[in-house]
Design goal:
Layout lengths: L2 H15 L4 E3 L3 E11 L4 E11 L2 E7 L10 E4 L4 E4 L1 E6 L10 H12 L3 E6 L4 H13 L6 E10 L6 H6 L7 E2 L2 E4 L5 H10 L4 E4 L5 H13 L3 E5 L7 H5 L5 E3 L29 H9 L4 H10 L2 E3 L14 H18 L3 E2 L10 H12 L3 H16 L16 E4 L13 E6 L2 E4 L2
Helix pairs in contact: 5-6, 8-10, 11-12
Length: about 425
């Protein structure tokens, strides 16, 4: 080990010993002797070296072939495991920026980054606030993951929802560039252009949209080169119609039941009410089998649509309306979608009470995923769902240097995702004791 390596090793030890988070940055450096969790090959590559140049990965090679030199700083991380920086595919940071204060948003975003989350997808909020947060996170003015946010489109009926009124403060709900009421007479060229002009990375379709309106939104969005994300059912358009329209992801796996039950009132009465809690696992398995979702899963594979499952939302202890049947269906749909080969993303959608790591654990413990599959969900699949797979989500030459280093192997136990050594976002090193 040369003097420079010794100095940097000591520096990392100093960072590790501090009680506060710390950031350390230099332009060109090597991370030596690491074990790479390769989410492309589903394999662990032992004793590799990753070269970082500014904010990108410039080389990956076996450590035995790497020759250290004085032009590249070296950090020895022998025995550590590295995964792509985690991506939470479903967050909400600015539903009501007056209540969800900027200082609190910054606090939570910092905590997210220091747990290894390097990017998030915000699935509808006040784009005026999100644009500023996204800019500051990108340039490093705040300690936060990269933020990719949406503009929302829905039928006019949806915009009496109190959340939309809070999000549109200072304007009119349904008439904001980032929150637009849609009908067959809408100016789709202008509406999509205004949505894109907010700086959004995608358009989110939420509720009360017909198949015709869905098709028009997606076609125009493709012409203007902006991704479209959607709820899995839109209370008019069915899941199969949404999936085949050209969206890149759909959210909330339990909504796929509406392929069989077109209206909410069609949901079986014995799924609902207090008695539902007492139903056995066998009952729920039989009821789930009646849905016959195999064709939906095949359609998702055909159109390469990612399922943003959000198991965290309807956990029974949250006591949300009809949460029990939703959770029972949610975990079974997510389980079988994964088994069928559908790409499943990991999104928390929990108002940041829990982060994506908790969703990963639910995927393993409730939906039968292996730890490796959960890692793929929170990295590669979440990147595809967000539309950033070209530069994030995997550890490859040319991609952003967004990496999470762990002291223990997460493939052996998903709980090891919390055993953090250090985090790299956009080439900058962060550390938290």
């Amino acid at each position: 080990m040369n003097l420079r390596q010794i100095t940097l090793t000591i520096l990392l030890l100093v960072l590790t010993s501090t009680t506060a988070s710390a950031q350390f940055s230099f332009g060109n450096y090597a991370l030596q002797n690491v074990n790479i969790i390769d989410v492309n090959s589903n394999d662990v590559l032992y004793d590799y070296t990753i070269i970082i140049n500014n904010d990108k990965i410039s080389d990956i090679l076996p450590s035995k072939t790497y020759i250290a030199n004085d032009t590249v700083q070296s950090i020895i991380l022998k025995g550590k495991f590295v995964v792509p920086g985690l991506i939470d595919a479903h967050v909400h940071f600015a539903t009501d920026p007056t209540e969800e204060r900027r200082d609190n948003a910054e606090k939570v975003l910092k905590e997210m980054l220091l747990t290894g989350i390097t990017s998030v997808r915000d699935m509808a909020g006040d784009a005026r606030a999100l644009s500023n947060l996204s800019r500051d996170a990108l340039v490093g003015d705040i300690v936060a993951p990269n933020i990719y946010y949406s503009s929302l489109m829905a039928g006019s009926k949806f915009f009496s929802d109190p959340r939309t009124i809070a999000t549109a403060q200072g304007g009119v709900s349904g008439k904001m560039p980032y929150m637009k009421a849609i009908d067959d007479n809408s100016n789709f060229v202008l509406d999509v252009a205004e949505a894109k002009g907010t700086g959004a990375s995608g358009i989110k379709m939420y509720a009360y949209l017909s198949n015709n309106e869905v098709v028009k939104i997606v076609e125009e969005a493709k012409r203007q080169n902006i991704a479209v994300w959607s709820h899995a059912a839109l209370q008019i358009a069915k899941p199969s119609e949404i999936i085949s329209s050209g969206v890149i992801s759909i959210s909330h796996s339990e909504l796929l039941i509406y392929e069989k039950f077109p209206k909410k009132e069609d949901v079986p009465t014995n799924w609902k009410g207090a008695n539902a809690v007492n139903m056995t696992a066998e009952f729920w398995e039989e009821e789930y089998d009646k849905l016959g979702l195999d064709k939906i899963f095949e359609l998702m594979k055909q159109y390469d649509v990612v399922l943003d499952a959000t198991l965290s939302v309807y956990e029974p202890d949250k006591n949300l309306e009809n949460s029990h049947w939703r959770y029972e269906m949610e975990k079974r749909i997510t389980r079988d979608a994964n088994k069928a080969g559908v790409k499943v993303a990991a999104g928390s959608d929990s108002n940041q009470v829990t982060f994506v790591q908790y969703e990963m654990k639910l995927l393993v413990n409730e939906a039968g995923f292996t730890p490796f599959e959960a890692l793929v969900s929170a990295t590669k699949n979440s990147a595809q769902a967000t539309g950033i797979i070209k530069n994030q989500g995997t550890i490859e030459v040319g991609k952003k240097a967004n990496l999470l280093f762990l002291n223990s192997n997460p493939v052996e136990n998903i709980e090891n995702i919390d055993d953090i050594c250090l985090i790299i976002k956009n080439g900058k090193i962060y550390n938290k004791k």
